[in-house]
Amino acid sequence: MNLLDSILSVNRSFVHPGAFPPLPKNPKKQFAIFTCMDTRLVDFLEPAMGIKRGDAKVIKNAGNILIDPFHGGVIRSLVAAIFMLGVEEIFVIGHEDCGMSEVKPEKLKADMIARGIAPEVIESLVPDLAQWLGAFSCPADNVNEVTAKIRNNPLIPADVPVHGLIFCPNDGSLEVVVNGYHAENYSGAARKSEIFCYR
Ligand SMILES: [Zn+2]
């Protein structure tokens, strides 16, 4: 049985009409996560954050990188999440031992050519493979940078806190790299402290 058939077979026994209550599109916990596609995070980061189906928007790519802040898919997804789906906070979550911190461009190029990608195509479209992929040496530095890029993006409202965290894919712990409530240009902080003062 090929992979597609085996997945369809599992799916036929998974579906039970009425077993899953319908959920609204808007996230119950009103936040979005931007994280890495690493397989160790699947069904691990969510329980580690106390979130379940229906709770949060989750955006993923290789290394939670943000290359093109105006034309790439990440900012588009965040804009849709904020303005159409009720998201009020953003969590950028990198992780230890990320594959994107171990990119070897020469080997990658050789592997691509070995799989039939034309060398001239690589040269003309992606001459600097590491830069094109958004490879980084330190996951926490990347989280810091991506958090700042989102925070300073003119399409993201200043009252949306943007947090940056690092996740351990082995023990499930989270560490704060950037506390979005304390960011210099987060406009929600003043409003929150006003509310606090009046209580
Ligand atoms: Zn990763």
Q: What labels describe this entry?
A:
alpha/beta, disordered C terminus, Beta-carbonic Anhydrase, Chain A, 199 residues, binds zinc ion, globular, 5-stranded mixed beta sheet
> In DSSP terms, counting alpha (H) and pi (I) runs of 4 or more, how many helices?
8
- CATH level-two architecture: 3-Layer(aba) Sandwich
Strand order of the largest sheet: 2-1-3-4-5
Helix content class: 25-40%
Tell me the fraction of residues in β-strands, as a range. 15-25%
**Could you tell me the number of beta strands?**
5
- State Rg: 20 Å
What class do helices, strands and sheet pairing give?
alpha/beta
N-to-C SSE string, H for helix and E for strand: HEHEHEHHHHEEH
Average pLDDT confidence is 92
Mass-distribution shape: globular
CATH superfamily: Carbonic anhydrase
Q: Compute the separation of the termini in Å.
A: 63 Å
Concise description?
This protein has one domain: Carbonic anhydrase (Beta-carbonic Anhydrase, Chain A). The protein is built from eight helices and five strands. It has helices at residues 3-14, 45-49, 73-85, 105-114, 119-125, 129-133, 139-151, 188-198; strands at residues 31-36, 56-61, 89-95, 162-167, 174-178.
Q: Can you characterise this structure?
A:
The chain is built from eight helices and five strands, in the order αβαβαβααααββα. By secondary structure, the chain is an alpha/beta fold. The chain has a single domain, classed as Carbonic anhydrase (Beta-carbonic Anhydrase, Chain A), CATH 3.40.1050. A five-stranded mixed sheet has the order 2-1-3-4-5, with helices on one face. β4 (162-167) and β5 form a beta hairpin. The termini are far apart. The site of zinc ion (ZN) has 7 residues, from loops. Zinc ion (ZN) is lined by residues 36, 38, 63, 95, 98-100.
